[in-house]
Design a protein that fits this description.
Distance between the termini: 102 Å
Largest sheet: 9 strands, antiparallel
CATH class of the largest domain: Mainly Beta
Helix content: under 10%
Order of helices and strands: HEEEEEEEEEEEEEEEE
Number of helices: 1
Radius of gyration: 34 Å
CATH architecture of the largest domain: Beta Barrel
C-alpha cells in the first residue's frame, strides 16, 4: 500500500508539472480588449516578455488628447468641445474636457487637455487624426468677405466699397480693414467694415479710388474698364 501511495503521489506531481507547462503555453489578455495583428508562426518558440500583439481596451468611452497654445485662456473642466474626423464624410462627436495638464509642454509651450465622449456616440480608432473645435474666445459676430475682395500693399489690407450715386452708378472707395481668421474662401473682418456694405470682389485689384462703376445685371456684375463682381458683406 505504501508503494501504491508513492506511485500515486509521483503521478500527481507529474500531472502538476504537465499542467504548469500547458499553462505557460496559453496567453490570456489582462483586460477586455480587441486583439491586433500578430506575427506568430506555428511551433515558434517564445522567450519570456516577448511582444506578440497589441491589445486595445474596450471601454464605455473614448479619450481624445489635444493641446492649445498658451496664448489662449485655459479651458475649464466640463467645457464642451467638438471632435470631428478629417474624412470627407467625417463624424462630429460632442465631448467634454475631463482633465487638464498642470504644466505647459517644455517643447511646444502648449497646454494639454483630455476630452471624453461616450461609446454610444461613435467609435474612433486609436491614433486617429481629428480636428478639435474649442471655445477659446467669447462668441462674437464678424463680417465675412471673399478673399478676392481684399487688396494689399505695404500699409495693410483694403477693400473697395461701392458708394451708390444713383442711376445704377457707384463710386469706388478704398477702405482699410483688419482681417481675422479664414473659413474656406471667406475671411473674417474684425474692424473697418459694417455688415450689408456693398464691396467689389472678383477684379477688385483693377479698381482705384474714385473710379466710377456701373452695375450691369442682377448678379452684381459691374463694369469698370474690365468686368468685376460685387457682393454684400455678410
Amino acid at each position: 500500500m505504501d508503494q501504491a501511495k508513492a506511485e500515486v503521489e509521483i503521478a500527481q506531481s507529474e500531472l502538476a508539472v504537465l499542467k504548469a507547462t500547458i499553462a505557460k503555453k496559453q496567453v490570456y489578455a489582462p483586460f477586455t480588449a480587441r486583439v491586433g495583428i500578430h506575427n506568430l508562426e506555428v511551433g515558434q518558440y517564445l522567450d519570456n516578455n516577448t511582444k506578440i500583439t497589441e491589445l486595445i481596451g474596450v471601454y464605455d468611452y473614448t479619450w481624445v488628447d489635444f493641446s492649445l497654445p498658451q496664448t489662449y485662456g485655459e479651458l475649464a473642466l466640463a467645457t464642451q468641445v467638438d471632435i470631428s474626423t478629417i474624412a470627407d464624410n467625417g463624424q462630429v462627436f460632442e465631448a467634454e474636457i475631463i482633465a487638464v495638464d498642470p504644466q505647459l509642454s517644455s517643447s511646444s509651450r502648449q497646454l494639454k487637455y483630455r476630452a471624453q465622449f461616450a461609446k454610444t456616440s461613435g467609435f474612433l480608432k486609436p491614433n486617429t487624426l481629428v480636428t478639435v473645435t474649442a471655445p477659446v474666445a467669447k462668441a462674437r459676430e464678424l463680417v465675412a468677405i471673399s478673399d478676392l475682395a481684399i487688396t494689399r500693399d505695404h500699409l495693410g489690407e483694403y477693400v473697395f466699397v461701392l458708394q451708390d450715386e444713383g442711376n445704377n452708378s457707384y463710386r469706388a472707395k478704398r477702405q482699410k480693414v483688419v482681417l481675422g481668421d479664414r473659413r474656406g474662401d471667406k475671411v473674417m473682418v474684425t474692424d473697418g467694415l459694417a455688415p450689408g456694405t456693398l464691396i467689389a470682389t472678383k477684379g477688385a485689384f483693377k479698381l482705384r479710388p474714385g473710379l466710377k462703376v456701373f452695375i450691369s445685371d442682377e448678379n452684381a456684375e459691374m463694369s469698370a474698364g474690365n468686368n468685376s463682381a460685387a457682393e454684400t458683406a455678410l
